[in-house]
Amino acid sequence: MLKTSFITLRAMASGLRHAFRFRTIPWMDRVILIGRGSMYVSRRDNRGRRILAMAGVTQPNISSLWHALSAKMTPDVILDIGANYGEIAFCTTYSNATSVHLFEANPYLEKYLQQSIQSRPDCGIFHLHMCAASSSVGIVSLTIDKKWSGTSSLVGEIGDSIFKGSGEGQFERTEVSSIPIDTVVNCASKTLLFKIDVEGWEINVLSGMSRLLTESRSFAGIVEFDERNLARAGGSANELRQSLSSYGKVYLSKDFLPTYNEDLPAHGDFLVLKNINLSQLRSSGSKRPI
């Protein structure tokens, strides 16, 4: 009981800090993003409730990095691949000249993403694609995690974990369309900002956006990796790193250090840059992004 109360109080304290830092207000079924509309979530989803409890920010370091990249780069095109409720894409504002594309395969999240987009003052720059980003056009099997939508995947059931919260695990399998990013977005000679978080399917996504990455004048990307999930798709974190390094310089986003074969953690986030000066993303005297 005492341990549960402590965890609850700690979560509340984190939520208050995030609300102040990121200018957010959790309210009923949404998080009000001051000056940026609202982010709607399902209260029946443990991840949706977690987003509300954390004032819309469950990954503060990634949200801060995304904000810094967007502000420094002023990208022409933005891709949030594996958007979930849009926590990262919706965390900041963009130029009216920017085109923002959200890719999400889970059909249950469509209405929440649509509501969030329509609430934004810059809703006209957003494009929602309810499909799985992959290496080819086709049909793929999606395992929907009904308990924690963030671990819905194309690699099968991802087992229960303490971060998923209370309740029995429940999964649903369905078929969804898959599409390469290269067939949707033409970004040649432009500045690109992207995020990939697809629970093990990252290498397939990269295969489907090779032209975009090759032809873009400059880009920055945040790519989550999990060794176990990548292995279930037939890959590895090192293979993902090597694939990314063929397009740009690869760092671990936690500390902006270069990556090598022997020092990859089991789980983390890569930062990949092409013609972007890393020093521009650091605060004066700090390794943290502005």
Automatic annotation (TrEMBL):
Phosphoprotein keyword on record: no
Single GO BP term: methylation
Species? Mesorhizobium muleiense
Which InterPro entries does the record cross-reference, listed alphabetically? FkbM_Methyltransferase, FkbM_mtfrase, SAM-dependent_MTases_sf
Domain Methyltransferase FkbM per the UniProt entry, residue ranges:
80-251
Q: Name one Pfam family in it.
A: Methyltransf_21
- Please state what the protein is called: Methyltransferase, FkbM family
Q: Name the SUPFAM superfamilies on file.
A: S-adenosyl-L-methionine-dependent methyltransferases (SSF53335)
Q: Which GO terms describe its molecular function?
A: O-methyltransferase activity
Q: What are the UniProt keywords, alphabetically?
A: Methyltransferase, Transferase
